[in-house]
Amino acid sequence: MAFACAFIAGATHSPAQAVNLFPADYQSKWTRIAIPPTHPVSDIAQWHIDAAKGEIKCDGNGGHEWLRFNSELGNFTFHVKWRFIPQAGSPHYNSGVFFRNDENGVIWHQAQTSPEGGYIFGETPVNGKLTGFNLQKDMKENRLHAPGQWNTYDIRCSGPTCTLAVNGEEVNTVQTGVAKGYIGLESEGFPIVFKDFKVRELH
User: Fold this and answer.
1) Are 111 and 118 in contact (CB under 8 A)?
2) Which residues pair with 122 in a beta bridge?
3) What digits encode the pLDDT tens for the residues 93-144?
4) Residue 123 needs a FRET pair 20 to 30 A away by CA distance; which of 33, 61, 113, 137 works?
């Protein structure tokens, strides 16, 4: 597997070509951001690279935060795979994949990962006011696999319109209050693994 370390912006590629975001060292292209952004980031370095497998692993033990890819994106598709690492008992697994966030995550849009399904929720500007929304009830079906199994998310954004497809089928569409932003990965208390990060810029 070839790992591309270039930023999306300024990279020498066709807009139609998918770019692999997996870095040799996540700290070179990704930044840890606390949730909420006014809180300090934990001293625990909970994000780790498994270069042999092309994975970013989150230990889930360093507080609530997100790992932001440092290039702001306009119109794009974002493909990523993820799986929770199974835990004993009956844990309420929780994490997510962010898109159309502002730099610090005050504005945020999340593709949720939890036993209740993959769906979009967040806080987006509406008529100049930050407004919360949750599309769980609009989710066409819960298409997530059990913890330990891989799931695939495909997020497509064109202008303010963004869609989420879970394991090959679209489940939600949202009208965001912004036309560009950052993608990222969430840590929220449970070990999770992400891989196959691919972004394709759209006209």
Assistant:
1) yes
2) 109, 133
3) 999 999 999 999 999 999 999 999 999 999 999 999 999 999 999 999 999 9
4) 61
Pairing type for strands 129-134 and 65-69 reads unpaired
Residue predicted with more confidence, 41 or 100: 100
Tens digits of per-residue pLDDT, 3-14? 233 333 334 344
Sole residue written with tokens 């807009």: 15
**pTM summary value:** 0.88
Per the CB < 8 A criterion, the answer to whether 190 and 60 are in contact is yes
Please answer whether residues 170 and 108 qualify as being in contact, where contact means their C-beta atoms are separated by less than 8 angstroms: no
**CA 61 → CA 43, 92, 151, 195, distances in Å?**
11, 15, 22, 20
* Contact criterion met (CB below 8 Å) for 107 and 100: yes
Consecutive H or E run containing 52: none
